[in-house]
């Protein structure tokens, strides 16, 4: 018996703003929204097909952004790692900065990935590119 990762929840001050940022980053769409909770995920997921897919194997999880009264105060204990698929790591970092992300220093030192923060300060990493010509299997 196993479980599947189906949702990731992020506490935030402005769910609509953060959902919009992450939709642009991941190519997701808003699946459901209220003033205090926004769910985003891949487009075109019919419930019955999604359930069947989840039972067969891992699927891309949806993200929930929930309004909370307190602000972020320390480094995330959990973060997302992104791998560019259409361009270089540097090009993706520039695209994310244009969307509102910023570089973040969490004491990572000299590493091959880039630590960034979303508009509310939640850290995430941009890993090596998986784009053709940028990544090859050994």
UniProtKB/TrEMBL annotation:
InterPro entries assigned to the protein according to its UniProt record, in alphabetical order: Glyas_Bleomycin-R_OHBP_Dase, Glyoxalase_6, VOC_core
Top-level division of the source organism's lineage: Bacteria
Pfam families, per database record: Glyoxalase_6 (PF18029)
PROSITE patterns assigned: VOC
Residues in VOC domain copies: 4-129
CDD domains the UniProt entry points to: VOC (cd06587)
Name of the protein in its database record: VOC family protein
Native source species: Nocardioides agri
């Amino acid at each position: 018996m196993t479980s599947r990762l189906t949702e990731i929840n992020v506490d935030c001050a402005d769910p609509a703003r953060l959902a919009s940022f992450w939709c642009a980053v991941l190519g997701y769409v808003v699946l459901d929204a209220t003033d205090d909770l926004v769910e985003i995920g891949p487009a075109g997921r019919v419930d019955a097909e999604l359930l069947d897919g989840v039972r067969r194997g891992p699927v891309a999880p949806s993200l929930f952004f929930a309004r909370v009264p307190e602000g972020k105060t320390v480094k995330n204990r959990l973060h997302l790692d992104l791998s560019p698929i259409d361009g270089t790591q540097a090009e993706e970092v520039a695209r994310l900065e244009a969307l509102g992300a910023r570089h973040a220093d969490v004491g990572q030192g000299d590493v091959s990935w880039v630590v960034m923060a979303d508009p509310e300060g939640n850290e995430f990493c941009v890993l090596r590119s998986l784009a053709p010509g940028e990544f090859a299997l050994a």
